[in-house]
Amino acid sequence: MTAPLDGMRVIEVSMLGPAAITSALVDLGAEVVKVEPAAGDYIRQMTWPIVEGVSLMHLHVNRGKKSITLDLRSDEGKRVFRDLAKDADVVVEAMRPGALERLGLGPSALRRDNNKLVFASISGYGATGPYKDYPSHGIAYDTWAGVVSPAVDDEGFTYIPEHVSIGIYAAPLYGALAILAAVIRARETGEGAELELAQSDCAAAFDWYRSETYRAYERPESEVTGNPSDDFERRAPGTAGMREGVRYQIYASSDGHVLFMASEQAFWKNFCEGVDRMDLFERWPGSTYADHARNNRELQAELRDIFATKTSAEWMAFGGKVNTPIAPVNTPKTLADDPQFADRLGWIPASRLGADQLAFPVRLIGEQLPVPEKAPTPGQHTAEVLREICGYDDDTIASLRDAGALG
Fold it and tell me: What is the value of pTM for the model shown?
C-alpha cells in the first residue's frame, strides 16, 4: 500500500528551522528536494546537541529529504530550478520572504510553466508589516506573541526561561495543512496558489485561548464572566487560572508527581469512593461541571496527604480502575520511560537517522508509514534528482557541474 502523499513532489529552498514546514509531508510519503548552496544549509552546525558532527536539528527537520546543490545566482542554476519546478506540486521558500522573487524565480515566473504549482513562503515575521525585513530567530516569535515572559535570576539578570518553543513548531503544522489544502484544490481545478505565513503569526494563533480571553475581558462583566462553578468570578486566562485549583491540580506521589483532574462532580465522587473518603465528597460535593474547588486549602491538605501514600504508577492504575482522570507528570527526559510512550510512539533508531528520533505521531490503521531516510549531506542527491526529475543525461550534468551551476 502506498503512503498517503506518495507521488507528491515538493521543491524546497530553505535555511534553518523553517525547513520543518515539509518534515511532516516527508513522513507521510512526499518527495521533498532541498535546494542548497554549495556550502549547504548551516543548520548542520546550529544549536545543540551535535551528533557525530551534525546537529540534531538538521537530522530531525531534514530527515527523508533529498539534497541538491545549485547556484541560483547563475543563469544555468536558475534554468535547472525552473526545470525542477515544472512538474512539482509545491515550491517552498523557507527563508526571508521574496528571496526567490529577487532571483527571478518567484511564483508568477514559475507558474508560467506550471499553472497548478502551489508556492509557499514561510518566514519569521512574514512578507508585510514593519518587522518584515528584520532578522530573527525562533524564540523571537514566542516573545512577540506573549508566549514566554522573561525570568530574573538571583543577581537580577533577566534570562530566557525554559519553555516549549511554539512559533517554530506551530508554523510548520499550519503551513503543511494549508499546502495540502491548496494542492487538493490545484489537482481538482488546475489552478495553483500562493501561500505566505509567518512563524510569529502562528505562535499567536497557537496561543489563541489566552489572547482571546484577555480580549473578551475587555468587555463589561455583565457580558463576560467566569464559570458558574466559580460564582462567575473571572479567572486569569489559560493555565494561569489553574494556580488556585484543588480538584484539578498537581500533587506529589510517593515517588514523583501526578496530575489530579476531578473537575466533574462524577469523577470527584468516584475518587472519594475509591479512597474510602466519602466524607470529603459529602463535605465538599462541588458543582456538576468545571469545579476545581479553588482556594480550598483544607481540602488541598487532605488530598496532599492522600496522594503521598501511593506511587505515580499506582495512582495511574487507581484512576483507570475507579474512572477518575489522573495523569503522570513526566519530564522530557523521563517521558521515554512511560509505558504509554513505549506503546504508541517509541523511537526511530539512531542507526537509521543518525540520532534517536520520534516517529510521525498519527497512525494509519492497517498501514505502516515509510521510515524516513537520514537527513542528507549537501548535494547528496544532485545527480539522482537531475536524472529522475529533469531527465538530464550524464553529459548534461557534467556540463552543468563544469559551469559551476551545481555549486
Answer: 0.94
